[in-house]
Amino acid sequence: MDELAARLAGALASRLSSDAFTLYLYGSAVLGDFRPGGSDLDILCLTAAPLSPDTAGRLVLLRQELAAENEPGFRLFEGGITSLAAFRDGRPALSVYWGTSGQRLADCYSIEPFSLLSLLDDGLLLHGEDIRPCLRPPTQDELRDAVASHLGTIRTYGVRPGRSIYGAGWMLDIARGLYTLRTGRILSKNAAGEWALREGLAPDPSVLERVLAIRKEPLLYRDDPGTLDFIATLGPAVAAFAVVLETAAINNRQKKMGYNAAKELLIRLGLNDTMD
User: Fold this and answer.
1) Strand 21-26's sheet: what is its strand order?
2) Can you tell me the distance from the alpha carbon of 127 to that of 76, in angstroms, rounded to the nearest whole number?
3) How far is residue 123 from each of residues 28, 30, 39, 91, 118, measured CA to CA in Å?
4) How many CB atoms lie within 10 A of CB 276?
5) Based on C-alpha coordinates, what's the Rg of the chain?
6) How confident is the model at residue 272 (pLDDT cuts 50, 70, 90)?
7) pLDDT, averaged across the chain
């Protein structure tokens, strides 16, 4: 991984020529949670100057070009390239996005509060000057709102995990949300799952234990029919664990804004089932 990251930094430097930039690696790769076959390499590249159309065009296909040099590991890099000023201020600017579905130009780039917290607390500086002191950390309100928003995603997609090893990750997403609500900090998915087990938060601990085993050895389980059958049945367990997270989010918000205001917010998000 270190060699891949160093080669990526060098390739970015060649495309950005004399433009100064900062490159970070964050997420599972630096939280001790990276697993081949089940994890991505999250990056953020912030340039001192706005990206020109020519430069952005050179960068948008860089990941594929590097992967074509007989190193498929470069396809694991996901994230964005944009100017520091635009990222810091949350305003539109020509940007480059690398994601699971491919790469493209974008008119802005941002990361959600959980990822920003991971970047600020644990991100690994790969190139350039460390500019994290000039980035505003997410507030507790923003973290709570991110949990509420993610609950909506879980209820839409997590309850239908399908026969894919990635479907097991929804349980660990919920565990991480619970940990962040409690502490204002962030853990890797595996560490959050283990914490939830110790705290007795999982409605069915045996399900979470098996999910953790799968998440820790994805290459061992990703083509196993019994494992995929198990993941396909996780919908009810995900829904039950989501109720635990929803209840925690409601209680957390009520402490600050009162019951009625909390209910109004969650009604707008379609997440008010447990309040009545």
Assistant:
1) 102-106, 95-99, 77-83, 41-47, 21-26, 124-127
2) 19
3) 10, 7, 16, 23, 6
4) 5
5) 20
6) low
7) 88
Of 128, 71, 75, 115, nearest to 99 by C-alpha is 75
Whose structure tokens read 């635990």?
244
The answer to whether residues 113 and 143 touch, using CB atoms and an 8 Å cutoff, is: yes
In this structure, the number of other CB atoms found within 10 A of the CB of residue 187 comes to: 21
Lowest mean pLDDT across 29-43, 74-88, 102-116, 131-145: 29-43
Q: Distance from CA of residue 250 to its chain's centroid?
A: 22
Q: How far from each other are the two terminal CA atoms of the chain, in whole angstroms?
A: 49
Token code pair at residue 205: 């601990």
Whether the CB-CB separation of 131 and 119 falls below 8 Å is answered with no
Q: How far apart are CA 33 and CA 188, in angstroms?
A: 6
pLDDT in the model for residue 185: 86
**Residue 147 near residue 180 (C-beta atoms within 8 A):** yes
Higher pLDDT, 268 or 103: 103
Burial of 100 (0-12, 13-18, 19+ CB in 10 A): exposed
| Greater model confidence, 218 or 35 | 218
Q: Which residue has the higher pLDDT, 2 or 260?
A: 2
Structure tokens at 219: 């290459």
What CA–CA distance (Å, rounded) separates 196 from 190?
A: 10
The better pLDDT of the pair 76, 69 is held by 76
